[in-house]
């Protein structure tokens, strides 16, 4: 399997590099490539859960391609701090009370967690439609957006985290709306939302004290569970929201 890197500034993807396990070569965004064996795309793949998705996809598939997106392929350290945002020191912190809500935090969280993914879906739509007819092992394309249980309105019992919760709820709505349009137009595209659980990453470390025993997962465990859901997704799952264990989460 080969790995392709995409520049993902502002939701627009421009192909900048092609990497196999043995070599790296740079190509222009206008280069025409023949994708054989299927394509998996991971948005926000510089580290953390995104990087683990790329690793497991490469390890588990002998054929096909993995497209990994990031803002700066040549220096992507810290990208996931913005992609799967819980907090950014001196910029945004989880709001424990309504009094701490700021306009800038709300807008930033929405841009990162909702605007970025939906714009990628928009610009990848033609490729997704083609993927559903490509004759690969699957006859449909799957869009799996990484959401969070705290984005569920029905499951909100503790309050707080206004910016993060609302941005993930927005991602849920945008993905659900896209899934309805794809189904109406009979595009062979399935859209799902996934909650990875609480994963032991740099992002979650400040909040791990309150995690129940046995509920803090490694990146490897969480991604393996999520990939299993993705690989077994069928048309009747279109527009649904799943936890890492396959249980459906209420909106």
Fold and architecture overview:
This is Adh_short domain-containing protein. Pfam families: adh_short. One of its GO terms (molecular function) is oxidoreductase activity. The protein has 251 residues and is α/β, with parallel strands linked by helices. The protein has one domain: Rossmann fold, CATH 3.40.50.720. Helices cover 33% and strands 19% of the residues. Helix 3 (103-131) packs parallel to helix 4 (162-184).
What attributes characterize this protein structure?
251 residues, alpha/beta, 19% strand, Rossmann fold, 33% helix, three-stranded parallel sheet, single chain, oxidoreductase activity, five-stranded mixed sheet
Q: How is this fold's topology laid out?
A:
Layout: E1 2-7, E2 14-19, E3 24-26, E4 39-43, H1 48-60, E5 65-70, H2 79-83, H3 103-131, E6 141-146, H4 162-184, E7 189-195, E8 198-199, E9 216-217, H5 219-231, E10 240-243
Parallel strand pairs: 1-5, 4-5, 6-7, 7-10, 8-9
Antiparallel strand pairs: 1-2, 2-3
GO cellular component, one term: cytoplasm
GO molecular function, one term: oxidoreductase activity
Protein name: Adh_short domain-containing protein
Assess the beta-strand content as a share of residues.
Answer: 15-25%
Average pLDDT value? 77
- The count of helical stretches stands at 5
- The domain tally reads 1
List segments where confidence is low: pLDDT < 50 over at least 5 consecutive residues. 9-31, 78-84
Judged by helices, strands and strand pairing, the structural class is alpha/beta
- Morphology: globular
* Total count of strands: 10
For this structure, what is the CATH homologous superfamily?
NAD(P)-binding Rossmann-like Domain
Q: How does CATH name the architecture?
A: 3-Layer(aba) Sandwich
Order of helices and strands: EEEEHEHHEHEEEHE
Strand order of the largest sheet: 3-2-1-5-4
- Provide the helix percentage: 25-40%
Alpha-carbon distance between the termini? Answer: 36 Å
Top CATH class: Alpha Beta
CATH topology label: Rossmann fold
Instruction: Report on the biggest sheet.
Output: 5 strands, mixed
Gyration radius from CA atoms, angstroms: 18 Å
GO molecular function: oxidoreductase activity
GO cellular component, one term: cytoplasm
Organism: Cephalotus follicularis (Albany pitcher plant)
Pfam families: adh_short (PF00106)
């Amino acid at each position: 399997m080969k790995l392709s890197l995409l520049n993902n500034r502002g939701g627009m993807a421009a192909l900048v590099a092609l990497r196999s396990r043995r070599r790296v070569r740079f190509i222009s965004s206008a280069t025409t490539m023949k994708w054989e064996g299927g394509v998996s795309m991971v948005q926000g793949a510089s580290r953390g859960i995104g990087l683990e998705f790329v690793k497991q996809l490469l390890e588990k598939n002998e054929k096909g391609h993995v497209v990994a997106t990031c803002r700066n392929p040549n220096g992507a350290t810290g990208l996931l701090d913005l992609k799967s945002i819980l907090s950014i020191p001196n910029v945004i912190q989880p709001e424990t009370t309504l009094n701490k809500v700021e306009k800038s935090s709300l807008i930033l969280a929405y841009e990162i967690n909702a605007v970025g993914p939906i714009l990628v879906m928009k610009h990848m739509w033609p490729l997704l439609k083609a993927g559903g007819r490509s004759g690969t092992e699957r006859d449909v394309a799957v869009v799996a957006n990484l959401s969070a249980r705290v984005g569920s309105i029905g499951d909100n019992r503790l309050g707080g985290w206004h910016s993060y919760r609302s941005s993930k709820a927005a991602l849920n709505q945008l993905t659900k709306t896209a899934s309805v349009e794809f189904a109406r137009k009979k595009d062979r595209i399935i859209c799902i939302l996934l909650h990875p659980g609480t994963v032991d990453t740099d992002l979650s470390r400040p909040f791990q004290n309150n995690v129940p025993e046995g509920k803090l997962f490694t990146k490897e465990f969480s991604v393996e569970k999520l990939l299993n859901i993705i690989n077994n997704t069928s048309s009747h799952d279109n527009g649904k929201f799943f936890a890492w264990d396959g249980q459906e989460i209420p909106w």
